[in-house]
Design a protein that fits this description.
Elements lengths: L2 H10 L6 H21 L5 H13 L2 E2 H8 L3 H13 L3 E5 L7 E5 L1 H23 L3 H26 L7
Antiparallel strand pairs: 1-3, 2-3
Helix pairs in contact: 2-6, 3-6, 4-5
Length: about 160
Protein backbone atom coordinates (compact mmCIF):
# COMPACT_ATOMS: atom_id res chain seq x y z
CA UNK A 1 0.00 0.00 0.00
CA UNK A 2 1.42 3.39 -0.95
CA UNK A 3 1.91 6.09 1.66
CA UNK A 4 -0.85 8.23 0.14
CA UNK A 5 -3.26 5.25 0.21
CA UNK A 6 -2.35 4.58 3.86
CA UNK A 7 -2.99 8.22 4.71
CA UNK A 8 -6.35 8.15 2.90
CA UNK A 9 -7.37 5.01 4.80
CA UNK A 10 -6.22 6.49 8.11
CA UNK A 11 -8.14 9.73 7.55
CA UNK A 12 -11.33 7.92 6.52
CA UNK A 13 -11.40 5.24 9.23
CA UNK A 14 -12.85 6.11 12.64
CA UNK A 15 -10.23 7.11 15.19
CA UNK A 16 -11.59 4.41 17.53
CA UNK A 17 -10.08 1.83 15.14
CA UNK A 18 -6.55 3.07 15.84
CA UNK A 19 -4.70 0.77 18.22
CA UNK A 20 -2.82 3.66 19.78
CA UNK A 21 -6.13 5.37 20.56
CA UNK A 22 -7.53 2.21 22.15
CA UNK A 23 -4.40 1.62 24.21
CA UNK A 24 -4.44 5.25 25.37
CA UNK A 25 -8.13 5.05 26.35
CA UNK A 26 -7.46 1.90 28.38
CA UNK A 27 -4.46 3.51 30.04
CA UNK A 28 -6.46 6.64 30.88
CA UNK A 29 -9.29 4.57 32.39
CA UNK A 30 -6.83 2.52 34.43
CA UNK A 31 -4.98 5.59 35.70
CA UNK A 32 -8.23 7.41 36.56
CA UNK A 33 -9.42 4.43 38.59
CA UNK A 34 -6.12 3.93 40.41
CA UNK A 35 -5.71 7.64 41.10
CA UNK A 36 -9.22 7.81 42.58
CA UNK A 37 -8.55 4.80 44.82
CA UNK A 38 -5.03 5.85 45.81
CA UNK A 39 -6.02 9.46 46.55
CA UNK A 40 -7.89 8.18 49.63
CA UNK A 41 -4.54 6.84 50.90
CA UNK A 42 -2.59 10.00 50.11
CA UNK A 43 -0.65 8.22 47.35
CA UNK A 44 0.07 8.97 43.73
CA UNK A 45 0.31 6.16 41.18
CA UNK A 46 4.11 6.51 41.12
CA UNK A 47 4.33 6.35 44.92
CA UNK A 48 2.10 3.26 44.97
CA UNK A 49 4.26 1.63 42.30
CA UNK A 50 7.41 2.39 44.33
CA UNK A 51 5.85 0.76 47.39
CA UNK A 52 4.79 -2.25 45.33
CA UNK A 53 8.27 -2.72 43.80
CA UNK A 54 10.03 -2.35 47.14
CA UNK A 55 7.63 -4.82 48.74
CA UNK A 56 8.26 -7.41 46.03
CA UNK A 57 11.93 -6.75 45.20
CA UNK A 58 13.43 -5.44 48.44
CA UNK A 59 15.93 -2.56 48.44
CA UNK A 60 16.42 -0.71 45.16
CA UNK A 61 18.37 2.31 43.99
CA UNK A 62 16.62 5.44 42.76
CA UNK A 63 17.72 4.65 39.20
CA UNK A 64 16.24 1.13 39.41
CA UNK A 65 12.98 2.52 40.77
CA UNK A 66 12.85 5.19 38.07
CA UNK A 67 13.22 2.53 35.34
CA UNK A 68 10.65 0.27 37.02
CA UNK A 69 8.13 3.10 37.34
CA UNK A 70 8.78 4.61 33.91
CA UNK A 71 9.82 8.06 35.17
CA UNK A 72 13.02 10.08 34.98
CA UNK A 73 15.62 9.85 37.74
CA UNK A 74 14.95 13.51 38.57
CA UNK A 75 11.23 12.81 39.03
CA UNK A 76 11.98 9.73 41.10
CA UNK A 77 14.31 11.72 43.35
CA UNK A 78 11.45 14.11 44.13
CA UNK A 79 9.01 11.22 44.70
CA UNK A 80 11.42 9.48 47.07
CA UNK A 81 12.11 12.67 49.04
CA UNK A 82 8.37 13.11 49.53
CA UNK A 83 7.91 9.48 50.54
CA UNK A 84 10.83 9.65 52.96
CA UNK A 85 9.27 12.72 54.59
CA UNK A 86 6.05 10.70 55.06
CA UNK A 87 8.19 7.88 56.57
CA UNK A 88 6.98 5.38 53.96
CA UNK A 89 10.53 4.55 52.88
CA UNK A 90 14.04 4.89 54.17
CA UNK A 91 17.19 5.52 52.17
CA UNK A 92 20.62 4.36 53.21
CA UNK A 93 24.01 4.49 51.54
CA UNK A 94 24.77 1.35 49.56
CA UNK A 95 27.45 -0.85 51.12
CA UNK A 96 28.81 -1.36 47.58
CA UNK A 97 28.72 2.18 46.13
CA UNK A 98 29.07 5.18 48.43
CA UNK A 99 27.23 7.50 45.99
CA UNK A 100 24.22 5.21 45.65
CA UNK A 101 21.30 5.26 48.05
CA UNK A 102 19.28 2.09 48.56
CA UNK A 103 15.61 2.63 49.23
CA UNK A 104 13.66 0.22 51.43
CA UNK A 105 10.11 0.05 52.69
CA UNK A 106 9.32 1.04 56.27
CA UNK A 107 6.68 -0.74 58.35
CA UNK A 108 4.44 2.31 57.85
CA UNK A 109 4.95 2.07 54.07
CA UNK A 110 4.15 -1.65 54.05
CA UNK A 111 1.00 -1.10 56.12
CA UNK A 112 -0.19 1.65 53.76
CA UNK A 113 0.58 -0.52 50.72
CA UNK A 114 -1.34 -3.45 52.23
CA UNK A 115 -4.39 -1.26 52.82
CA UNK A 116 -4.31 0.36 49.36
CA UNK A 117 -3.65 -2.97 47.64
CA UNK A 118 -6.90 -4.38 49.05
CA UNK A 119 -8.78 -1.86 46.91
CA UNK A 120 -6.51 -1.91 43.87
CA UNK A 121 -6.81 -5.71 43.61
CA UNK A 122 -10.59 -5.38 43.18
CA UNK A 123 -10.04 -3.93 39.70
CA UNK A 124 -7.44 -6.59 38.86
CA UNK A 125 -9.93 -9.30 39.82
CA UNK A 126 -12.73 -7.64 37.84
CA UNK A 127 -10.52 -7.44 34.75
CA UNK A 128 -9.38 -11.03 35.16
CA UNK A 129 -12.99 -12.20 35.58
CA UNK A 130 -14.02 -10.37 32.38
CA UNK A 131 -11.97 -12.84 30.32
CA UNK A 132 -11.69 -16.59 30.05
CA UNK A 133 -8.30 -17.96 31.15
CA UNK A 134 -7.35 -18.37 27.49
CA UNK A 135 -8.43 -14.80 26.63
CA UNK A 136 -6.55 -13.49 29.67
CA UNK A 137 -3.34 -15.25 28.58
CA UNK A 138 -3.79 -14.00 25.01
CA UNK A 139 -4.46 -10.43 26.14
CA UNK A 140 -1.34 -10.45 28.33
CA UNK A 141 0.76 -11.78 25.46
CA UNK A 142 -0.70 -9.23 23.02
CA UNK A 143 -0.13 -6.34 25.42
CA UNK A 144 3.46 -7.49 25.95
CA UNK A 145 4.00 -7.57 22.18
CA UNK A 146 2.42 -4.12 21.79
CA UNK A 147 4.64 -2.76 24.58
CA UNK A 148 7.74 -4.16 22.86
CA UNK A 149 6.77 -2.44 19.59
CA UNK A 150 6.03 0.84 21.39
CA UNK A 151 9.43 0.76 23.11
CA UNK A 152 11.22 -0.06 19.84
CA UNK A 153 9.42 2.72 17.98
CA UNK A 154 10.22 5.20 20.75
CA UNK A 155 13.90 4.34 20.44
CA UNK A 156 13.68 4.91 16.67
CA UNK A 157 11.87 8.22 17.18
CA UNK A 158 14.46 9.50 19.65
CA UNK A 159 17.46 8.44 17.58
CA UNK A 160 18.65 11.45 15.61
CA UNK A 161 18.72 10.94 11.84
CA UNK A 162 22.13 10.62 10.24
CA UNK A 163 23.62 13.87 8.94
CA UNK A 164 22.99 14.59 5.28
CA UNK A 165 25.72 13.51 2.93
Amino acid sequence: MSLSMEWEYAVESPIENDLCTRIRRSEQALMAHHEAVLRAYGLTMTQYTVLLHLSREGGMSGAQLARSCGVTQQSMSSVLTNMETKELIRRETSPVHAKVQITTLTDKGQTLLDRAYQEVIILERALTDAFTPSEHASLCALLERATTVLIQQTRHATTPPPPPT
